[in-house]
Amino acid sequence: MISEREAAKYPFLNDAVTLVETLGLTLEDLMDPGHTKVLDRAERRVAQAIINGEATSELGDTITELLSFPVGNMFITAMGEQFLFRRYALSEAVRAQGLLKDETEERLAKIARLEFGWTLRLVDESLDGRLYRFELLFKDYLRNAAGFREPEWKIVNRLMREGYVLLTRREASRLLQEEIQRRIADLVSRRRQISLPGPLGAKVESLKKFFDENRSRLTGEDLPSELMTEAFPPCIRHAFEGLMAGKRLSHMERFGLTSFLINVGMDIDEIVNLFVSVTDFDEQFTRYQIEHIAGLRGSRTKYTPPTCSTFKTHSVCYNPERLCQHIKHPLSYYRIKVRDIQREQGPESGDEAPNTQAAK
Ligand code: SF4
Fold first, then answer.
1. Residue 300 pLDDT
2. Which end of the chain has fewer CB atoms < 10 Å from its terminal CB, N or C?
3. Cα separation of 115 and 104, whole Å?
4. Which atom of ligand 1 is nearest to the CA of 323?
C-alpha cells in the first residue's frame, strides 16, 4: 500500500486514488468548515496553474495535499475551459516531475512500469560523459518524446540497443511527465461539466473571475494587432538580426524566433519569406514547420515561445536588459515594452495598456 506522503506527492497514481476512495468523502463532507484547508489548497493549485503554469508541492500537511488534488480536478472540470484542462494538467505534471527526478531509479522504474505500462530495464552505463540508468522500449519512448522539438530527443540522436533507447534519470522523469500530463488532462476533460454547491461553487466562481482577469495575457489576446519590432526583447532581436545577417540559427533559436513572431502577429507568409530569402531553406519544408508551430497542422497546438529560463539553458538568452530581471517570458517583455512605447507616443496611439502585474 502506498504511504500518505507518497500519495500526496503523486496523487494521480492508482494507489493514491484508491487511498482517497477509502476515505469515502462526499461533497457534503467537503463543504464542512473542517475541510476549508483542502478547498483553499485546491484553489491554490488551480491559481498556480493559471498564473505560473506550474504548481508547487506543499507536503507539510500530506492529507490536505492529497485531498486537494481531486478537488482541484473538480474545480477545473466545473470551470469548463478547454484551455485550462491542458494548462492545469501540464502544471501538475511539471510539479510531479520536479519530485520524480530526485527519486531512486528503482522507484522511477516501478511507477513507469506499473502505472504507465512501460517496458523498461535498469542499466548503469557511462557513455560519452553521460550516465545512462534506463533502457526504454522504442515504442514507449516514441509515444512520449514524439512531440519534443529539441534535437537531443530526435531518435536519430539517441543511443539505441536491440530496440531499446538509453535514458538518463532526468530524461526518464521528463518522459514520465508526458504520461502524467495525459492522464490528468484525461481526468479533468472526460467528465461532463458539473455544477458545485455551496463553498465549492463559490471557489469555482472566484477562480473563473481570476481566469478571466488573466485570460487575455495567457491567450495572447492583449497583444497589439500591429507588429512592433522595436519592442522585441534582446534575445529575439539577436536571433532576428542574426537571421537577417545570414547566420545559421540553432534549433532553439529558430523555434523561439518563429513561435515569437507567430504570437506577436506576424503573417505566416512573411515568416516563411524571412527564412527562405536569407537562408537556403526549402520553402515547402519551412512552411510546413512554421504552420505546425502556428497550430495549423499536426496536433493543432499553437506553440508559445519557451520561457526565459529555457532560453537561458539553451544559451538563447542574450544580453538581458533591466526589464528582463522582472519577467519570466519573452512575450511578457514585449507586452510591457509595447505599453511603454504606446504611453510615450500618447493616448491616440491605439491599443489599451495591458495589466503589467499580470504580465509577470
Ligand atoms: S531574460 Fe528573457 S526576454 Fe530577456 S533576453 Fe533573456 S530570454 Fe530574452
1. 63
2. N
3. 16
4. 4
